[in-house]
Structure formats: C-alpha cells, structure tokens
Amino acid sequence: MAGSLAETDFLTSAPLWLAVALLLGGGVLLAWPIIRRQVLARRSAAMTRRVPTVEDRFRTVRAAAAQRDELERLVAEARETIRIGCAQLDARLEKLERLTGDTRTTETELRNDAAAHVHVRPVHPAAASTRTAEPIDPLTRQVYSLADEGRSALEIASQLDEHTGKIELMLAIRRA
Fold this sequence. Notes:
With 176 residues, the protein is mainly alpha-helical. The protein is built from 6 helices and no strands.
C-alpha cells in the first residue's frame, strides 16, 4: 500500500510541476529574442562609439579657452563701464553739491537784502482770503490751470517744455 500511495502522490503532483516548468520555459523562450536584441544593440553601440582623438581634445580645449577669453573680455568691459559710470556720478554729485551750496548762499543773501530794504507788513487772514491771486504771466496761468486739473509738476513741465524745478517753484509760490 505504501508503494501505491507514492505512485498516487507522484501522479497527482506531476501535472503541477510539469505545468510550472512549461510556464517558465515558455517565458524564457518569449523573453529570449528581446534580451538578445538589447545585448546586440549595446554591443553595436559600444563598437560604434568613437574614442576622442587628440585633435578632438585640442578642439575642446581651444573652445574652452576661447570662451574663457571672451568672458574675461566681457568682465573687463563691464568693469570699465562701471568705472566710467561711477566717475560720471561723482562729477554730477560734486556739481549738485556745489549748486546746492550756491543756492543756499544766494537764498541767504536775498533774505538779508529783503530784510534790510523791505518792511513787510503782516496781512490779516481775512484780508488775504479776499485778495485775488490772478497770475499775469501766461505761463503761470497755464501751470496753475494744469495743476488744477490734477497734473503733477513733472507732467506739467514735460507738457510745457520747462524745467521741473521752475514748475515746482511756481506751484510752491501759489501755495504760500
């Protein structure tokens, strides 16, 4: 009976291991052409890959040197441009400081002259509101009308082709 039991186990288990073996064998047979094609493609790519020659390396080094030289030239040019710009800014700042000092001196002189020669009578606020401040100058009339429209001093100056400082002064005098 023991022999018949072994035969029964072999017969019942034989189809299972045989099915697994056939399945694995079929998978290998299906995958073999794909794997072979990839191996051959890698070999042919490795064989066609060109080893860089000495001339290729020299060309690469020369190109890198040319790029480095161009970058150094651009950096030198940028430094020179910055140096010139800084020198121009310094000159303009010096001129502006000189003009500011001249303006302060002139203002002080004018105030001293005005105080020495003119006696200003204080105006009562009620009298100030009744006086009409109609500008006589046509430019002043234009500036005031544009300012009443809500335009800035810069816009007025560009429209009338006048200096911005002049327009700001006219508007400041009007407010005073």
